[in-house]
Structures are given as structure tokens and as C-alpha cells.
Amino acid sequence: MSQRKPRILVCPLDWGLGHATRCIPVIRSLMKAGALPVIAADGHQFQLLRLEFPGAEFVNLRGYRVHYSKRIPAGIQILLQTPRLLFNVYREHLKLKKLITSLDVDAVISDNRYGLWHQRTCSVLITHQLNILPPPALSVFKPLVHKLVRFFIRRFHFCWVPDLATSPNLSGYLSHGKTLPENTSYIGLLSRFNENPENEKQIKLYDIVAIVSGPEPQRSIFEQILTEQLPPSGKKCLILRGVPGDQEIISIRKNLDVTNHLPSDMLGKLLRSGPLVICRAGYSTLMEIATMANKAILIPTPGQTEQEYLAETLDKSGIYVACRQDNLNLKTAIAEAERRPGLSIQQENQLLESAIKALMESIELGPPAGLSRNGTL
Questions:
Q1: Residue 107 forms beta bridges with which residues?
Q2: Distance CA 144, CA 365 (A)
Q3: Do 7-190+347-365 and 208-337 agree at the fold level?
Q4: How far apart are the C-alpha atoms of 127 and 118, rounded to whole Å?
Q5: In this protein, which residues make up the domain named Glycosyl transferase family 28 C-terminal (predicted)?
Q6: What angle do CA 130, 131, 137 make, to 5 degrees?
Q7: Cα(5)–Cα(36) distance, integer angstroms
Q8: DSSP codes of every residue in 1-68
Q9: φ and ψ at 273, to 5 degrees?
Q10: Nearest CA-CA partner of 350 in 25, 124, 109
Q11: 7-190+347-365: which CATH topology?
Q12: 313 vs 174, 229, 236, 305, 308, CA distance in Å?
């Protein structure tokens, strides 16, 4: 009789597609290690992962469904929704108990979903935000936010940080600079793109690839701005709309193509050819362009302090160009970005593989003692 494969529930946050895309290398590594991933997601994240892993087992798990406004700053919007978000954390914590039983789950990997831990089942939190930055107007709440995040991190048996412990690293203050929870380890940058196959011929199809991402309504606003300002003279451009589904590439005018979605292998091949990338400063997108060594223009989602911090830090370091969405001038930004060096950080696959090995051992031996606290939320 063949040995039963460990069943591991993988649950990305529904806050943009980045949490789903960075779960792709985790799911691949789980399969390589002999585990059977069960993917729990919602909305576009569900659709994207279904396209990447058509043979995997899926379950629908309702996301947090954060809403944004065109007029109210994102930080204020999130603050106003905090009671509902905390209720969602509590609700998913109760839901997880039922899923563990009904799906016969041996471990849980949660990407930034703070309620998905269980005291008797190995539980992993993936996050790069150990030190969350509230909006400047709400900085008085920073100590409270810090304590709340650490409270949830310590409910999990493992906390995996998708970054490097030493310089150069990508997340800066967000996951460095303070004493780490004892269950924390760095697993290297996570990229869904495979390493460049030897002798693969690089054909540069586009000079610029613009990647649209993030929640509405800002996703559509960003797409409209890109459509209005691209292409610059003499450069061939592609706008990737970030909407899983149709993969047809359509020309909307000379030197400007658009597509809803591209599978990882095709997008990886495009980025390896060296186009300039225009994108949000979402952490998952930054990991991908850093491992592919692209030059980039970063336009943070207005009001998202994490993206604003990352964009400003990388701009001041002379690596990428950062621009505000409300006064974006792509012609000027492209000229400046082409003079910047970009960033190249090798993907350390062995760090992720070591973390998964430790998880698999814990499944056999039982969860580590003394990390996940007894009781419920």
C-alpha cells in the first residue's frame, strides 16, 4: 500500500492577485516534496490558480473583500472597515476548523490571512509585513497595530517571510529592523517564473510591459491612465490587465497591445527578454521583477502606505523610478527609468525547500510546542 501524501491547505489573501501568484512557487515546491496541495481561494485568485494548477483540488473560501473608494484615502477606508475585517478573521478561523475535518488536512499555509491557524494542525503564515506602516494621519495607532500583528503571528507554528535576512533585501523595514517572533524564518524571494532554461533564445517582443493590478476602483483608473499615455514614440508596448481568463493579445492601436491575462510561462518569457516594466509597487510584483532583473517604473496604489514606502525607498536608492498616479507623466518617467540600473536578486529556492522540509517533518512529528497558543480568537 502506498504511503498517503500529506494534504496541505494553501490559502492566499484576496487583496490583489499578488498573494495568489506568490503561492504558485510554494504549491510547486509542495508537490515536489511529495505533498498534495488543496487550494482554498475566492474570486480572481481562485480563477488564476485554477489556470495554473488545473489538476489540483480546490475549495472556495470567502476572502476579506476590502472595498476602496475614489475619494476616501485607502488608509482611512481600511480603518473604517477594521471591525468587519476582524470579524472576517474570526469567521475564517471557525471555518478552518470545519475544513480541516472535512478535507482531512494535515497542515495549513496562509498567505496573509490571520485567522487560518489551528493549535493542533501545523499552521504557516506567509507575510512580508512584520512591521505594518499605518497612514501618517493614523501613526498614533502604530504601536497598537504592531502588537496586533505580532499577536496573530504567534498563533501560527511557522511564519515565513518571502525575503532575504541580509542585504540586499527587498522589504526593508517591513520585515527587518525589529526583534522577530521566534517562529519566523526568511524563505527568499518568491517568483512564479521558472529559471531561464539553458540556451533559450531571447526574443524581445515588447520594449515596455505594463502590469495592471490591485483592487477596484484603482485598478481600472490605473489601466485608463496607461491606455491614454502609451505607447511612447518608437516603442512597442503591452498592457497586461490582470484579469484572469481570456489570454488573447489584441492590438488596440499602433505599437500598443493589450491582454487580460498571460500564463506564468509566457509572461516569464516576456520579462526575461528585458522590457521596461510599469507596475504597482505591490510586493509580489517587485519580487518578480527583481528576480528577472527588469528596470521599472513604480506607481503605488494611492493611499497604500506599504506600496508608497517600497516605491519611495527603491526610488531614493536609485534602483527604480517611482511616480504618483495623480500626476503621472510616462514619457518623462520612461526616459529616467532607462537610466536606472534596476535590481537583480537571485531566487534562493533552497530556502523555501528547507522551510517546506521542516513543515513536512512537523506534520509527521506533530506541531512544534510552545509556539501556537492554546485557545481560540
A1: 8, 122
A2: 36
A3: yes
A4: 17
A5: 268-337
A6: 145
A7: 6
A8: -PPPPPEEEEEE-SSSTHHHHTHHHHHHHHHHTT-EEEEEE-HHHHHHHHHH-TTSEEEE--------
A9: -75, -5
A10: 25
A11: Rossmann fold (3.40.50)
A12: 11, 25, 29, 12, 8
The helix/strand/coil state of 173 is helix
pLDDT of residue 375: 44
Residue 12 near residue 49 (C-beta atoms within 8 A): yes
What whole-number distance in Å separates Cα of residue 195 and Cα of residue 69? 39
What does the block give as the cell for 198?
539553458
Is the pLDDT confidence value at 1 over 50?
Answer: no
Domain regions of the chain by residue span? 7-190+347-365, 208-337
Task: Please write the tens of the pLDDT for every residue from 269-326.
Answer: 999 999 999 999 999 999 999 999 999 999 999 888 999 999 999 999 999 999 999 9
**Residue 259, φ and ψ in degrees, nearest 5:** -145, 150
The amino acid present at 278, given as its one-letter code, is I
> What is 208-337's CATH topology?
Rossmann fold (3.40.50)
> What are 111-166's pLDDT values in tens digits?
999 999 999 999 999 999 999 888 777 788 888 888 999 999 999 999 999 999 98
CA-to-CA distance for 151 and 193, rounded, in angstroms?
Answer: 33
Q: Give the pLDDT confidence score for residue 198 in this predicted structure.
A: 57
The cell for 322 is 517611482
Q: How far apart are CA 210 and CA 188, in angstroms?
A: 25
Output the pTM of the full model: 0.91
Can you tell me whether residue 74 is helix, strand or coil?
helix
**Which residue's C-alpha cell is 512591521?**
131
Q: Distance between CA 291 and CA 170 in Å, rounded?
A: 11
Q: How many residues does the chain have?
A: 377
